[in-house]
Amino acid sequence: MNTFETYESEVRGYCRNFPAVFATAKGAWMTDTTGRRYLDFFSGAGVLNYGHNPDKIKQALLAYLMRDGITHTLDMYSEAKEAFIRRFQDVILQPRGLSYKLQFPGPTGTNAVEAALKLARKVTGRDQVVSFTNAFHGMTLGSLAVTGNGFKRAGAGVSLNHTASVPFDGYLGSEVDTLDYFEAMLVDNGSGMELPAAVIVETVQAEGGVNVAGTAWLRRLREITARHGIVLIVDDIQVGCGRTGHFFSFEEAGIVPDIVTLSKSLSGYGLPLALVLIKPELDQWTPGEHNGTFRGHCPAFVTATAALGFWTNTLLQDAVTSKGDMAVEQLMRMVKAQGLDATVRGRGLIQGVAFSEPGLASAISQACFERGLVIETAGIDDQVLKLLPSLTIKEDELQHGLDIIETSLRAALSRDLRKAA
Question: N or C terminus: fewer CB in 10 A for the chain?
């Protein structure tokens, strides 16, 4: 560990919660340099939806590299890019009746968000963007401006302007439709809210605490934005690519966003790749107006094309739904058994347990790691234990992880009782 502590910046974070040096990984498991195995309920913050080193995707990548397939082309045409575009059209967009132009920005999620915000402002001629309480959209300045977390925002070191935050679904309690507030602000000339260029939303706020937007709320948001000529951006970076069951998290609500941002599990293998889906009439970029050196990494196109093989039928989608139900059932049972003030919430294979007791989620996460399970927390106070296993995890592996959580929950509660005594 001395190498990291001596030479790596203090900004490092996850390694402090999971102090192991990982060497290999396969499927739902990671192995450290001592040979100890850990079940992975983190999946690289949603990057590894198909698990570690999935064979079919790995073989496609190796074959491409071994024949000296081109690695880097900026935004020049390549065989790998063309194959991905055609496959994405055939497997994802056309079966869903969706028509989008594809923009490849820089390689990460925040690059996709920045491009989406810039384009929305360009096509509308307006600069205000509305986001939601507890949102997380990235760590660059534009993305931070539409992020709710005060700690992250403070890291910018400058004012974050031209945005407004309004309450997310459920933020004011289950009895309040927060879109009443948003719409009232839009139509009242005395509200102080300018007509925004865009609204950016996560259907499930992953980093914000696994907060789930209802389908009716999302439909109403789509109707409001359409009626007022506001670009609707859905950030599907963490909860897209099948995390909630459907490939896109907004499918269940039956809405069609104007712009969609994707990254994380898009490449299917952990290689950096981001994509902005744009309604054709909004694709008003001039050549080179938005660019970046790594806007189209050919090895990532290869793995992303191979990963789309999971979406030629509904087998994975059905499995995610089934395993999600399995997780919810056991999580609710263990919370009830301990008589805890806690809420289980999520969709598919992103599930969270929100605890009212401060520090409990972090204590459970630490106890899980001691027992060989990597699982993170979420929410502004890390009050939510967040389950993010691979979509391809086997049911017995999922059950094993849930059993570790239950054991760790009891251990964390026992430690609290000993401290109180």
Answer: C
